[in-house]
Amino acid sequence: MQSKHFVKAALFTVFIVAAFFTGWEIYLRSKGVKVAYDDGKELWADKRARVYQPANEATVFIGSSRIKYDLDVATWRNLTGEDPVQLACEGASPLPVLDDLAADENFKGKLVIDVTEALFFSTPRSNRNDVPSFIAYSKKQTPSEKASFAINRRLEAGFVFLDKDNFSLNAFFDKLQVKDRPGVFGMPLFPMEFGRVNFDRQNQMADKFLTDTNLRNRVTGIWQLLRSINKTPPASGPLLDSFFTVVKARVDKIRSRGGQVLFVRTPSSGPFWMGEQKAFPKEKYWNPLLSLTNAPGIHFTDYPPIAHFVCPEWSHLSPKDAAIFTTHFISLLEEKGWKFPRRNTTALSLNLQP
Fold it and tell me: With 80 as the cut, is the pLDDT of residue 93 above it?
């Protein structure tokens, strides 16, 4: 008799839990929230494993958040027939990942390096401490961890509430407005609508972000705050020379194996771009980077088709502009000698129509 009561209690508990999560899922979807993926070490490692595809089947991207927003994966695949392997990380220098790829004798493909000067020429080399852990995890991932990732991928694809960056208990704690204490600085939180991450690790602004001035002002306010507390002067002199030396050595190593390397400076606008021009003038940073590495580069200000974008929060492109930027970027890459054997010229002409 007692066991029967336990069964009923267990079934009732399962029902309550299922009803709660069903209601939570329905509520989130009613608010227009779409599925997003946890952009952690597991997803990064999944992409890292794809860098060994033949050079005519994939291009690898490293850098900071701009290339994650500005490269539209669907447009790239449609126009080139290639797989874009996104290894960039928000708030981080690409140099640790460049080190990793240069040291990997099996990597011989095409590499695009996104240059956001304040991060590219930063000290320490990765402003985001978890990038080295991403790299380490990708080298030591166990079969059980890979199986767990495969299961989680299926679940994340079906349920909005599994977005742990926004809807987990820790995420709700992080959103509590706690005042900074002396000597303790809490990083301000970006609104969820600023960047939703898909399985290809592309970040996209939600429609609400593009139409809500308050949300955009929150992000521009964060940029201004970070700029005000960052007192580290731009790299110069011997320190800057050491950056160029390190990057040249890594680039040469990849090209010695038959790989291709290209640098890109993606668009920024407004006060952000004004400050970047002053702190990192092209003639001191971008131009020497290309000349000393003897590598091709695409700076958005040098090419009218990609020089006109206005970033909603001064630093990243909207999804619509990302598709346009990607279309022109592919054409510019071809002008630099890059080959895309399965080029979709019909789709290109449609994408470039006003």
Answer: yes
Question: Which residue from 338, 346, 333, 269 is spatially nearest to 303, judged by alpha carbons?
Answer: 333
Q: What is the DSSP letter of 304?
A: G
- CATH number of this structure's domain 41-351: 3.40.50.1110
- List pLDDT tens digits, range 257-277: 999 999 999 999 999 999 999
Domain boundaries, the chain: 41-351
**Is pLDDT of 354 > 90?**
no
**Tokens standing for residue 221:** 């306010």
**Dist. CA 84–CA 59, nearest whole Å:** 5
- pTM of the predicted model, to two decimals? 0.88
Listed in sequence order, the DSSP H helices in the chain are 2-30, 41-48, 65-70, 73-80, 95-103, 117-120, 131-140, 143-158, 164-167, 169-174, 207-211, 213-229, 237-256, 270-279, 286-293, 319-335, 345-351
- The whole-angstrom separation of Cα 138 and Cα 152 is 17
Instruction: Select the more confidently predicted residue: 188 or 299.
Output: 299
In angstroms, the CA 239 to CA 25 distance is 51
Q: Collect all residues with Cβ–Cβ distance below 8 Å to 280 and sequence separation of at least 6.
A: 117, 118, 121, 234, 286
Peptide bond into 312 cis (omega under 30): no
**Choice between 86 and 147, residue whose per-residue pLDDT is larger:** 86
Distance CA 227, CA 294 (A): 32
Give the Cβ contact number of residue 98 at 10 Å.
Answer: 23
Q: Is the pLDDT of residue 4 over 70?
A: no
Q: Are 114 and 61 in contact (CB under 8 A)?
A: yes
Q: How far is CA 154 from the centre of its chain?
A: 22
What is the DSSP annotation of 306-339? GS----TTSSS--HHHHHHHHHHHHHHHHHTT--
Rounded distance, CA 76 to CA 214, Å?
A: 32
What single DSSP character describes residue 205? -
pLDDT the model gives residue 249? 97
Which pLDDT score, from 0 to 100, does residue 187 have?
65
